[in-house]
Amino acid sequence: MLKRRNSLFSMMVAAGLSLAMIGSAGAADKVVKVATQSPLSGDQSVVGVDIKRGAELALEQLGAPLAAMGFKVELAPFDDQANPDAGVANAKRIVSDPAVLAVVGHYNSGVQIPSSEVYHTSGLVNVSPANTNPKVTTRGYLEVNRIVGRDDVQGVVGADFAAAKGIKTAFVVHDKSAYGQGIAEFFKKRAEENKIKVLGFEGTEEKANFDALLSPIVAGNPDLIYFGGMAFQAAVLFKQARERGYEGMFLSDDGFDSPDAAKIGGKTLIAGTGTYYSTVSGPASVYPGTAKFITDFKAKYNADPQPFAAQGYDSMGISLKAIEMAAAANKNEVPTREAVAKAVRALKAYKGITGTYTFNEIGDPEKALYFVIQVKSADPAAWASNPIVQTLEIAPPK
Amino acid sequence: MAATSFKEVFDKLNQGVVGYVVILLHVVAGSYLVYSQPRSNLAFLVFISSLLSLYFFRADNRFKILVGMLLALVIIPVIGVRNIFYLEVIFQISVFAALSLGLNIVVGFTGLLNLGYVAFYAVGAYLWAFFGSQQFYVLNYAPGTQPPDLPFLLPGDAFYLFLLVAVIIAAITGILLGLPVMRLKGDYLAIVTLGFGEVIRVLANNLDKPINLTNGPQGITPIQRPTMPEWVVDLFNSLFSGVIGHDVKLADMYNVMFYFFALLVIIAIIFVTKRLDDSKIGRAWTAVREDEIAAVAQGIPIVRMKLLAFAVGASFAGLMGVLLAASRTFISPESFNFMQSIGVLSMVILGGIGSIPGVILGAAVLTILNLQVLQGFSLYLNDLRQSDAVIPVINFAWKDLSTQLDPAKYQKLLFGLILIIMMIFRPEGLIPAKRRKRDVSVDETK
Amino acid sequence: MKQFLRYLNVKELVRPIGQMLAFSLGSAAVMSAIILVLALVLDKTAVGTALVNKLNVSLFSYTLSNLPQVVIDGLTIGFVYAAIALGYTMVYGVLQFINFAHSEIFAVGAFVGVEVLIFLQTLGVLSGASVFMAYAYLSLAILLAMLAAGGLAVTVEKIAYRPLRNAPRLVPLTAAIGVSFLLQDLIRLVEGLTTGQFNRIIPTFGNFDDRITGKMTLGATKLFIGISVKSIIVIVAAVLMLVALNYLVNATKVGKAIRAVSQDMRTASLMGINVNRIISITFLVGGLLGGAAGLLYALKFTRIDPFIGFFPGIKAFTAAVLGGIGNMTGALLGGIILGLLETFAGSYLGVFTMGAAGSEYKDIFAFSILILVLIFRPQGLMGKNVGQKA
CATH says B83-444 is which class? Predict the structure, then answer.
């Protein structure tokens, strides 16, 4: 027994050493890694997987300059399971790998906030493709940046648009996520300032059966139903509201920006006084890159990109650009994490597919463009051609 | 039969000096491997499995305690500071081991199936999250709209007081839940506790209005930690910075500190559990589990015994909740969903219902599987996919492997499989409980 | 024909319909009365004034005008719960075992049915289908969903539960939780590999989205009633299934065997009943019902994902416990009550608490009621208080 155990043991030791050797052998040709963290399992993986895919595509398409400098850039995708425990554990694993120079991630602000504490203590830069909670950046960490707008701005954009449309009464619904509720709270606040009567403010985790929620909504017959949250819930709610005979307007946020909305809602979205959504990622007409992204994405993964896939692409693009700049400043050697973090902040007008980015001193995009878009076609394939009805350029609150 | 013969061979070999040699070799080799290969998964597995050798091989108890203390107090902190991921894994193992030990009292000793156990964990976490943060001054603001620079309600060192408070509050919660449901049979109890778990999560998610107690889905942050005296960091650095290779920062030292807290809590829990199990109460619990009617006939106050089990189990979870809130400095309802309750239950079942070492092993196996092995395997596949490697015989390029097949995505599938396979082939768990083993062997004689 | 009628036990066809009518009307009436009294009481308080300020309508007439709609919505979802709950309760009746994986059987039914419809859509036959053909296609999808779910339920029983039949109760329950997790990810794996995504949306076809509306005036209050065609389909299909099930259990030989096994498995086997076969049939029937309920759910609510089974499953189980688990009539009653309760809570809670609590508490409302009922009637509403089984 002992002998067998020992031989097994020595095998394990040998295997461990050889595995480690593979790792060290690779280090010779300047391997750097960019990690992604997003939910790859569980019910939020629809979006999480596409954040990863967006980043993967960006690495494939935008990795050339670094390759020319003699770097091999690898993607290290992590599954944060939409769970803070897993996110923090992954974060610690990521920072313990010196080859990782940037993290693209998270989807849930609830995971990003504790995980980025780890990045912060290790000086590792984090470019967030999806976290809109103000707290993400208001902590003022050098390492934390995001390319999306903030809840406290997008809610305001929606409420101002509603007031301009002459809306008098609104019912606000949100998905009880940090994201959806955040936007809805600020929508409500601004709407009340704009003298819009908010008939109700309700959260729901329901994904299918909105019957009960719709009774008080339809009874009040508001001019507008606002939904803070994602398309897969919003579109179902809107469809069921129309089935109830509601004829007013729908308004939602950038979580609504998905062809799935048209697939679910179909012609109910263009009935009545129509459906609008505010978004920070402009349509193809504004950003030609987006159209190409959608085609490339479909060609590679055989599926439509979900919300935040394009942001995943841009976050990766920004990370690569920063690594490139920092490496160039370091005589084409592997730069330090600190240098990369500073390089992200030093980027001037990075041209991505979802916008042009310059970060302010807390990591918010300086002046983000916000669009209000109207759903014009019930055909999911025509989603990208929905027209912009309003464009706003707003600096984030300090 | 194979199992018994294996056991016989093992017992025959496991005598005299052999145990000492194996334990020492394993610990030294593991430590050396992890030290020289600080990022190799395999090295870590070799290292962490030395605890198994420590448990299974026969040696003098004083020797075992000495080696165990060396491991826990010196080697793990040093290795953990060199690679904080390992410390995080060990910390999470400790947290889940403590939770599993608590659930084990309810499910294992008393036979009451509790499917909403993380609710008590949430109670503890939110307790400290509320009092140890600025939340008290946010009561009248909608989530996200509060002004910055609010004061903290209590100093960070109140943490120690709240370890005690959480034990009491969680125990009371356990009794309050237990009171109405104690008359119910097992299956009813399962569904009611499941419902209770959901209720607590939904309350945490929704009590941001009319007064903002929990800050809703946004979660509460920052939560304070107890203060760390300067001299602790200095002492640690003067002792170990040579081995570690660099000076340790305060943030890393907090990781070590919470690891020690978790370790202390586990030791306390094991102590309490063992004493309870060997006492009149423990035997009463077993009686309740095996046959309630007979237990009543014996004059055992079953309602009081069940409530006690609920309260003890809940108090462990409450304690760990406070620890979690302080170590994370952030709490949101996402940490307390049904999946977590099932995860802890799986640990108890995998390790061995009613068995203290088994439950700890279960927690370790599932945590390592989840955090290290599955993720590591996915990363490995991903590396292959990014390379030009080809599977030789069937000429299949790794590049073409669908990302749908990433093992990290199918954690639930794996948990499910483990539960089914364990139930069919080894329902008593990896390390069966001693008392239970006796029951089974009586059955086998017929 | 005459001969056929002689074999047909008409009483067992009429009785369940009567029960359903009585349960639906009874619970709807009780709850409506409670809510109306509450509305009257609160009308003159701050709650009433708040509503007048917002919508310029008194609380009582607001409550009254919404009531018919709320009752219809509640009954629709209630019947879906009842259909799922029967799967739980039948298995429990026979094996005293909570088939935790039943919610995934339901999800598999939904996926198979929706995939069939999506396949028909890619063939191009759905979009232009006449009303008759639309119903034919829907029936086909339901049938295939039922078969798939039923088959799966039987397979799961054979592989995962049968080896554990004589083990302590915790053992099969844990295995069932395992099966539930396994199936969720398996659906995800299969859908992910074949279609690249695992959210599926049921195609729009036929006249299912049409709505029948009516208005009534009651004194000064206008009552609005509306019901969509698909809600009617859901209710009718559920009623048909429940009647058929009742007939199977109470008026056929197989049903007699099922009842015998549920009363005493050992004695039943001594009487020459093939216990394994009967248990398989029980799972098959539960699976058939669950699968159909899955597709009906998808039809009513449009979008499905591999995790949709969880909440309906938990609620249906709650319904089964509420009614007294193991008791078929109880499951029906429990489902209807739960559906109504949760719809009432979701619809009125916001107004009655002035926005302090709203439909986000809908899900836990059901659990709270369950706990309350169990305190006073631990055996459930219609369960018999049998002694504890060792």
Answer: mainly alpha
